[in-house]
Design a protein that fits this description.
mainly alpha; two-stranded antiparallel sheet; 12% strand
């Protein structure tokens, strides 16, 4: 997470509980802005959807990214997903590699 981006988690976090991440970016003129960053929103959404929805999302994105021919574009894209949620990026990276082998 960038130095100027902050995150706070609400919820107990135990098995079966919900965890919601609240993120915001600091701006030079204020301590925090009410608008969360794009990667924060994507990570929050990823953590809120069910596992089957996550699997479908990963498969859909990976299928499209696997068609990209420039590795640096794929790597940059996966980096954005990793910033949103480390698991999100890791699963997407693995799925893209699997698609490319088939």
């Amino acid at each position: 997470m960038a130095d100027n981006q902050h995150s706070q988690t609400a919820g107990a976090g135990g098995p079966g509980s919900s965890r919601i991440s609240i993120c915001w970016r600091s701006s030079p003129t204020s301590t925090a802005s009410a608008s969360p960053s794009g990667s924060c929103k994507a990570g929050t959404l990823y953590r809120l959807i069910t596992e089957s929805e996550r699997a479908r999302l990963i498969a859909s994105i990976a299928g499209n990214l696997a068609q990209v021919t420039r590795k640096e574009i794929i790597d940059r894209s996966i980096g954005h997903f990793r910033r949103a949620d480390p698991e999100y990026g890791a699963r997407l990276d693995q799925a893209v590699e699997t698609h490319k082998r088939t």
